[in-house]
Amino acid sequence: KNEVEQSPQNLTAQEGEFITINCSYSVGISALHWLQQHPGGGIVSLFMLSSGKKKHGRLIATINIQEKHSSLHITASHPRDSAVYICAVLRNSGYSTLTFGKGTMLLVSP
Amino acid sequence: DVKVTQSSRYLVKRTGEKVFLECVQDMDHENMFWYRQDPGLGLRLIYFSYDVKMKEKGDIPEGYSVSREKKERFSLILESASTNQTSMYLCASSFVSGDGYTFGSGTRLTVV
Questions:
Q1: Do the Cβ atoms of A35 and B42 come within 8 Å?
Q2: SS3 label, residue A104
Q3: Which residues in chain A touch residue B44, judged by CB atoms under 8 angstroms apart?
Q4: pLDDT value at residue B1
Q5: Which residue of B lies nearest to A44 if distances are taken between CA atoms?
Q6: How far is A35 from chain B (nearest CA, A)?
Q7: Which residue from A19, A34, A98, B63 lies 20 to 30 Å from B35 (Cα-Cα)?
Q8: Is the CB of residue A98 less than 8 Å away from at least one CB of chain B?
Q9: Any chain B CB within 8 A of the CB of A84?
């Protein structure tokens, strides 16, 4: 079993829809990252969370440490949001390496 | 604007060649990392470094080595490239705490 599980694997939406991507993990962590990767592009860190909730524009990320679960929400989705979204955890022991989920491929149609 | 710069966006190399992938960061980060990304497997850690001249193996170090002679530069070396090393290679850096994680834009390596 992977230490970081994301769902869904693939997601299609119509422009304007509210989108949720989920991430569950099974190890102790000090923080969780949500990353975005456009086709052929590099990876951008959207959020780094250790508790609660963060908001940036139309993006909201939440984390529940007790339940070992995080969600990324996109409000009023737009075709430019089409990308792969990756959840990655920073373990609370050892070096600051990330363990990644397999990613969620989001396609938003006009 | 803070940056992690990878020297090549695309590379094509022949089987058996020695390949160098270079990564430079300008954020004074202690940690630097090399990951590879493959469809269906996601991102996997090859090697990382937490200080100059220090290195640690990641999950898939076989067939690779690294060099960190200066704080800002971390090189990934494929000693004898093989076709199963065709992949997207991503460099990243962070502070020792894990804050400030920043990725490069990746090098797509094809070994023929």
A1: no
A2: strand
A3: 100
A4: 66
A5: B103
A6: 10
A7: A19
A8: yes
A9: no
> Residue B10 to residues B3, B7, B106, B112: CA-CA distances in angstroms?
19, 9, 9, 13
- CA B101, CA B35: separation in Å to the nearest integer? 13
Is the Cβ–Cβ distance between B6 and B22 less than 8 Å?
yes
Look at chain B and count its residues. 112
Using pLDDT thresholds of 50, 70 and 90, give the confidence band for residue A1: low
Q: Does A31 touch chain B (CB under 8 A)?
A: yes
- In angstroms, the CA A21 to CA A74 distance is 9
Q: Which of B31, B43, B104 is closest, CB to CB, to A100?
A: B43
Residue A77: closest CA among A108, A98, A33, A105: A108
Concatenated DSSP letters of A17-46: --EEEEEEE-S-EEEEEEEEE-TT--EEEE
B52-96 residue pLDDT tens:
989 999 999 999 999 999 999 999 999 999 999 999 999 999 998
